[in-house]
Automatic annotation (TrEMBL):
InterPro entries, A to Z: Di-copper_centre_dom_sf, Polyphenol_oxidase_C, Polyphenol_oxidase_cen, Tyrosinase/Hemocyanin, Tyrosinase_Cu-bd
GO molecular function per UniProt: catechol oxidase activity; metal ion binding
Cofactor or coenzyme needed: Cu(2+)
Residues spanning the membrane: none
SUPFAM superfamilies: Di-copper centre-containing domain
Alphabetically ordered keywords of this record: Copper, Disulfide bond, Metal-binding, Oxidoreductase, Thioether bond
Organism expressing this protein natively: Eleusine coracana subsp. coracana
Name of protein: Tyrosinase copper-binding domain-containing protein
Tyrosinase copper-binding domain segment(s): 61-72
Lineage, opening ranks: Eukaryota, Viridiplantae, Streptophyta, Embryophyta, Tracheophyta
Region ranges (Disordered): 1-31
Pfam families for this protein: PPO1_DWL (PF12142), PPO1_KFDV (PF12143), Tyrosinase (PF00264)
Family membership noted in the UniProt record: Belongs to the tyrosinase family.
Gene3D superfamilies: Di-copper center containing domain from catechol oxidase (1.10.1280.10)
Length: 344
């Protein structure tokens, strides 16, 4: 949550608009701690882990409100203490999101519409979070020693009945600090498929693990914090009685993890490949993963082939003077300060 999410999309999840396929990909916050605390506070004696361990029943438990209040607080801390301090990428500017609205009943049972943009400042809603110590904020993750395990022969797609290790190429290495801050290196675990949403599913995503064994017996299960990119944790959505219902169809999703700080931390920033381990932790016998890649950051790295001595990246073409060695002719711009004519 601290180092793997330098952008709102990597913290809160991908945009989800009307007409999109469901499950575009949650952020790490939704997986851990949100999803795992749901399971932890669910009742294993109940058939569907009620109340907290299943979506349909979770809000029936008073702990739900404490848990979600704390998830909101994590977001607040991320915005104000982690991202604001670096002055970048703290908020989502998209009006589709800012103007999205929800209907609620107020204390007088009147239906009121609340927009997302009106709910972003706790002070405006007349509450503040208690000022408590945050010793974890500056903690450094522990590192493992030893040689990183090799990739498996099989590769992906694969079922996560046991640990799967794949070699992943990094499009760019040894980027400058400024580049890393502007454009995060994103590990994308793609084509995650679960036959339904009936059971809790969790697997860990570990980079250059020094573990030697399989899922249960090796060191992967206890991978050092520095090597962990994050986890995928899917909270069940349906009750078993619904198994035959049409809603019990396959779930297909994607997970994204920022790994810029991670590769620095484990000394792998110069490596052109990393080995990514997917370590099953719960309900993974029927989970398949399609592939793993590293996302090239946005349009800055888009490239076009031209008849030139090089194929230039867009990022190499933004400064006309320094990079492209031309300037625009300095001509008069009488329209620059013109006032529009008012027709009466
Ligand atoms: Cu929840």
């Amino acid at each position: 949550m601290i180092s793997g999410a330098k952008k709102p999309g990597l913290f809160l999840g991908q945009p989800y608009r009307q007409g999109d396929e469901p499950d575009p990909g949650p952020g790490p916050l939704e997986n851990v701690p949100h999803g795992t605390v749901h399971l932890w506070t669910g009742d294993p004696r109940q058939p569907n882990l009620e109340d907290m361990g299943n979506f349909y029943s979770a809000a029936r438990d008073p702990i739900f409100f404490a848990h979600h209040g704390n998830v909101d607080r994590m977001w607040h801390l991320w915005r104000t203490r982690l991202r604001r301090s670096t002055n970048t990428n703290a908020d989502i500017p998209d009006p589709d999101w800012l103007d999205a609205s929800f209907l609620f009943y107020d204390e007088d049972a009147r239906l009121v519409r609340c927009r997302v943009r009106d709910c972003l400042d706790p002070a405006a809603m007349r509450y503040a979070y208690q000022d408590v110590g945050l010793p974890w904020l500056n903690a450094r993750p522990t590192k493992a020693s030893g040689t990183a395990a090799r990739a498996d022969a099989g590769g992906l797609p694969a079922t996560l009945g046991q640990t799967v290790r794949v070699s992943v190429a990094r499009p760019r290495t040894k980027r400058s600090r400024k580049e890393k801050e502007e454009e995060e290196e994103v590990l994308v675990v793609d084509g995650i498929e679960v036959p339904d949403h009936f059971q809790f599913v969790k697997f860990d995503v570990v980079v250059n693990s020094t573990g030697t064994g399989g899922g249960g017996g090796g060191c992967d299960g206890d991978a050092a914090a520095a090597q962990r990119a994050g986890s995928v944790a899917l909270t069940p959505h349906l009750i078993r009685a619904d198994r035959t219902a049409a809603t019990g169809s396959a779930v297909r999703t994607v997970a994204r993890f920022g790994i810029g700080d991670l590769v620095d931390e484990i000394g792998a920033d110069g490596d052109s490949t990393i080995v990514v381990s997917l370590v099953p932790r719960a309900g993974c016998d029927t989970v398949t993963v399609g592939g793993i890649g590293i996302e090239v950051p946005d349009w800055l790295d888009a490239a076009f082939l031209l008849y030139d001595e090089d194929a230039r990246l867009v990022r190499d073409c933004l400064d006309t003077t320094a990079q492209l060695q031309y300037t625009y002719q300095d001509v008069a711009l009488p329209w620059e300060n013109a006032e529009p004519t008012l027709r009466r």
